[in-house]
Specification:
The protein is of the alpha/beta class. It is about 40% helix and about 20% strand. The protein has two domains: about 210 residues, 3-Layer(aba) Sandwich (Rossmann fold), CATH 3.40.50.2000; about 160 residues, Rossmann fold (3-Layer(aba) Sandwich). Helix 3 packs across helix 5, helix 7 packs parallel to helix 8 and helix 10 crosses helix 13. The radius of gyration is 21 Å and the shape is globular. This is Glycosyltransferase family 4 protein.
Length: about 375
């Protein structure tokens, strides 16, 4: 049995794509006879407050599904203040250093990035000729931060680029969730060993029953983080509600603004349902005609994991994010696309969708595509020989 450690900033009971991705990776490796340990902060995302069962702990270690999980102290915050966010990352980095000093670290370590600073701390402390460091990149920072408007090209941006360069240089293997990420890494280090590791989900597929033909409005659902990058608040403002209903599930920084907007515009057909567990959400999503996957701006390297999750559910998608994600929707015929940032085009695309045509035959076709092309276990089996 081979020891392997995963270092991540997000892990259940936290919700979201990053948490799910790292949990499935840990669980998958454990099933393939790896002895898996995970280092992660005390759970606090997305509220910015340590979850109730973990408050008052400097460190919490448990074994869950035969996976050892070390939860370390962090100064938790979901503030938009850059200084507070930096303090949060530094606090987790210091906790990691302390952990490394007093614990035996396996020879194979998977490090999640971003956050860049956490990945940098891990690589700086753990690099050794006897140890294999695997960098798992889900988003390209600082490029993504520039596109989102969170960063500006100044001294701090240049410093982050140096950290990014250091991380790539000293990683023995780079896993990227998109072709664009791997292209970026190899543009800097042409001989770097890389592997395309998509964010494929791993759950039992639901049965798709015959859906009654819709006679009313097109029922569109968004489920996930209500953050700046997703732009759900602006989406609420820009959609044409003549022939649609918008249903929203999730939580995040824009939640209060969205709830206030709905309260102040009772004439618009928008319903906010709050937050559900992933298992509950999977059942609820199937009653809608289609889901929308938006990004406020096209982010190079980003491919929302929702694409693969919803395809497995057999849920048609309306993609509004551009880039590689748009190409995947088109290639596999998973739904419709609208030009990123063009709300006029988005409303035009929606107006041409006939709810009565979104039936079980199309849904089953999407699900079959997912089973044939987005298989978590098949991908993991290809990755394991490289670990």
């Amino acid at each position: 049995m081979k020891d392997i450690m995963i270092i991540t900033s997000y892990f259940p009971p936290e919700i979201g794509a990053a948490s799910n991705r790292m949990y499935h990776l840990a669980k998958g490796l454990q099933k393939h006879n790896f002895k898996v340990s995970v280092i992660t902060p005390l759970p606090n995302y997305p509220t910015g407050k340590i979850f109730e069962p973990y408050r008052g702990h400097f460190k919490h270690t448990s074994e869950e599904n035969k996976i050892t999980i070390h939860r370390l102290w962090i100064y938790s915050s979901n503030s938009k203040n850059k200084l507070l966010r930096l303090i949060a990352m530094l606090s987790y980095s210091f906790s990691l250093i302390w952990f490394f000093m007093w614990n035996t670290i396996p020879r194979t370590v998977i490090i999640q990035s971003p956050p860049l600073l956490v990945a940098f701390t891990s690589i700086l402390c753990l690099r050794s000729k006897k140890r294999k460091l695997i960098l798992n990149i889900s988003d390209l920072w600082p490029i993504a931060g520039l596109k989102l408007g969170a960063l500006k090209k100044n001294f701090s941006y240049g410093f982050l680029e140096k950290i990014e360069y250091f991380n790539y240089k000293h990683a023995n293997l780079v896993l990227g969730q998109s072709e664009e990420i791997l292209t970026h890494v190899t543009s800097l280090f042409p001989n770097k060993a890389t592997f395309l590791y998509r964010n494929f989900p791993d759950f039992n597929i639901p049965d798709i029953s015959i859906k009654d033909k819709s006679t009313g409005k097109l029922k569109i659902v968004y489920a996930g983080l209500l953050g700046v990058a997703q732009g759900i608040y602006k989406l609420c403002q820009e959609l044409d509600y003549i022939a649609i209903q918008l249903h929203i599930y999730g939580s995040g920084p824009e939640q209060n603004a969205i709830e206030s907007f709905i309260k102040n515009h009772p004439d618009l057909d928008i319903v906010y349902h709050g937050e559900l567990s992933r298992k509950e959400l999977h059942k609820v999503l199937l009653k809608y005609d289609l889901t929308i996957i938006p990004l406020l701006n096209r982010i190079y390297g980003s491919v929302p994991s929702k694409i693969f999750e919803y395809a497995r559910l057999g849920l048609p998608m309306l993609y509004f994010g551009g880039g590689e994600g748009e190409s995947i929707i088109k290639k596999y015929d998973l739904g419709w696309v609208a030009n990123v940032g063009d709300y006029k085009d988005l409303n035009t695309v929606i107006s041409k969708i006939n709810p009565s045509e979104i039936q079980s035959v199309y849904r089953k076709k999407i699900q079959k595509t997912a089973l044939g092309n987005f298989d978590f276990n098949r991908q993991l089996e290809l990755l394991i020989p490289k670990l």
